[in-house]
């Protein structure tokens, strides 16, 4: 089975506007699709890639120009310093979950398989999905489902979870799926299960906080004129990126100078890029992808 099918492979690397001797970051290494294509176009350059999942290490190329940073991209600046890098020419981030994590049933990311409730991108961290569904108060669960899953069934699911776990500990995916099935119409089953699992996964991995920390650090990590390419898969990922590129903050509040120019560290480049119909037909998981591009201010 393919570890991961890279979304917007050529478009993402092309958007970096590569210099053959430049220094670049692939913030989400995964199966190495973007990284390998970047390396094929470097001559004297360097690539640092991030992945907190030990399973991704098997895909690391044996290349002197390549460094795999075994950690979360939220620690971007620390890893750059540790590798003697001051600033980079470009950063590519392909957010979300890898195909491998979805398809490896034992990891607990997908409702399609019965396994222990896990969902940790970094299997060495303490918090997992089992802890969330068995220890969070009803209000915490409700808010999590509404905020991270954007589901109207959040209150009902939270209430049912709290009630069910009083009888037996919720340890397996099948138990959670059964609870949701009791509340959701069949026609909404897949979409609502996806939302519930997304919410728990985001909570377990602190994904949105990590994303914001990474985006903020990227502005200082980039050289003036350096390029930032971000690929997201749902509105909770895309919205903070769009706001930060456009306004320089996650609240989308624009501060303008006397000449009407927006004070922001990054300037959006072009329009949002989405996968072609052909790519979506070949890889349905690409259907929700959005790619945004920005350059760091030359005086930054």
Outline the structure in words.
- The chain has 300 residues and is α/β, with parallel strands linked by helices.
- It has two domains: 9-99 and 207-296, Vaccinia Virus protein VP39 (Rossmann fold); 105-205, Putative methyltransferase TM0872, insert domain (DNA polymerase, domain 1).
- Helix content is 39%, strand content 14%.
- It has twelve helices and seven strands.
- It has helices at 9-15, 33-39, 76-82, 99-103, 129-135, 138-149, 154-164, 173-181, 189-205, 207-221, 235-247, 277-282; strands at 23-26, 46-50, 66-69, 88-94, 222-232, 266-268, 290-296.
- Strands 3-2-1-4-5-7-6 form a seven-stranded mixed sheet, sandwiched between helices.
- Strand 1 (23-26), helix 2 and strand 2 (46-50) form a beta-alpha-beta unit.
- Helix 1 (9-15) crosses helix 2 (33-39) and helix 6 packs antiparallel against helix 7.
- It is globular.
- 41% of the residues are buried.
- The model has no long low-confidence stretch (mean pLDDT 92).
